[in-house]
Amino acid sequence: MPDTRARVWSVRKATSVPLAPYGGPSVFGYETDLPLRRAAQISVHTSPLATLGGKDAGGMNVYIRELSTHLAAEGLPVDIFTRRTDPHTPEVREIVPGVNVIAIEAGPAAPVGKNDLFPYLPDFAEQMALYSLRAGVRYDVVHAHYWLSGWVAELGRRYWDAPFVQMFHTTAHMKNAVAERADRETDLRLRTEKRLLSLADGIIAANPDERADLIWRMGVATEKVCTIPPGVDLDLFRPEPREAARARIGIAPEERIVLFVGRIDPIKGIDTLVDAAAILLAGETLSPAPTFLIVGGDLDDAGEPVGPLADIARAVAARGISGRFRLVGSQPQDQLPAFYAAADVVAVPSRYESFGLVAVEALACGVPVVASRAGGLRFTIDEGVSGLLVKPQSPSALTGGIARILGDDALRSAMASAARPSVERYAWTNIARQVMHVYRRLAEGHRAHLCAGSEIFEATGSD
Ligand code: UDP
């Protein structure tokens, strides 16, 4: 029997290709494989292909789509697992070369509320593993989004020998701290998130406060948590002349526009914006009076708001200010640059934001932002330079911020000039490389020093 090992070695030596350290656990003969060859993303409750701006599709969907696209561009293929909600969706859809979205059968092939999905998670993990067997692929790292997917990643350990990194996209604890009683998150979510903190091999926090909270309050080991914010598509979101943008979306040149973009969910604080608008319009201090343009939520075939957006329409009508509101429903993301560029100011009145993509997209388009001093917004808005931060859930504070920017052209144009440069650090190539670093460390078997070392959030010491 010839000595295969000796032969392989002599070939390598003869061509002087350096031997890569054995990354295992592949079979003999594959020792030059890199440890990081393919990644899985798990997004149980919402698909990266869902329509954005509805109740459950927003920043996380964008994040998974963009991150996967950029990882694939850097040479790492990605499969994204999401629950099948429609019997006709193909099992595998390639969204860009190297990125597949895979529909997993777990529970009914119909929409199911987030809070009813937990019993289907073992099926989801099993079907995911069966898919990987059928497709003949294996994953070197698993990235779980939101607590439900984190639990699937943990159950997936029964089948896959891959480390997993968890991203919460807001924890129940953070959300409950600002939620009304009716909107509070369940004990099951709180308990599961707590368990995931010790079960996950690595955790990515979207802002320095979130990392600090995980470490100091929740007791997570420091070396396990990296702060890596989402990125923003700086090619799509870029400044353009206001008049041209307005002409595209039917806004008169002389109108003053306060823009809101986002899911219609209590966490977004639209109630605060409605109250702020009522104060501002009653004061009649601004002439002409601004129009509040609301992007997000659903309209019926007749163009009338439905669901949570209808509640907003009623709240606006009750204050007698319907004439100054325009509810245009959710918009495809590639239409949003025109909305941002057409605005005089973008309002982000959220009760909490893990990161707050809308604020960063607006800044990338060169538009000042008035936002709540909450979560990631505290780090993305350069107070007084690119926008203003105001007390969350305070209509009068929000009114003050909006009036200050609308009433001072010099301030507004200085902020507009400062906006774009302030967010260039969120370029996706930069962010994807940092996430790739975490994956590589985990795939190589490390459980410490996972973070690449980032200057995105200065002076935060995220390593
Ligand atoms: N978005 C969109 N169309 C809409 C409303 C929102 O494409 O009608 C996108 C928006 O561009 C942003 C994301 O949805 O990328 C919302 O992200 P953000 O972080 O602001 O909020 P989240 O949904 O994560 O709470």
Task: Please provide a written account of the structure.
The chain has helices spanning 4-14, 59-73, 121-135, 146-156, 172-176, 187-199, 208-217, 242-249, 270-283, 308-318, 336-342, 357-364, 377-380, 395-406, 409-422, 428-443; strands spanning 39-42, 78-83, 92-96, 99-104, 141-145, 164-167, 202-205, 225-227, 257-261, 291-295, 298-299, 305-306, 325-329, 345-348, 369-372, 387-390. The protein has 463 residues and is an alpha/beta fold. The chain has two domains: 39-231 and 429-460, Rossmann fold, CATH 3.40.50; 242-425, Glycogen Phosphorylase B (Rossmann fold). α2 (59-73) crosses α16, α3 packs across α4 and α4 (146-156) crosses α6. The longest helix is centred in the last third of the chain and has 16 residues, at 428-443. The chain is globular and about 65 Å long. The chain starts with a helix and ends in a 20-residue tail after the last helix. Bound molecules: uridine-5'-diphosphate. Uridine-5'-diphosphate binds next to α2 and α12. Uridine-5'-diphosphate (UDP) binds next to α2 and α12.
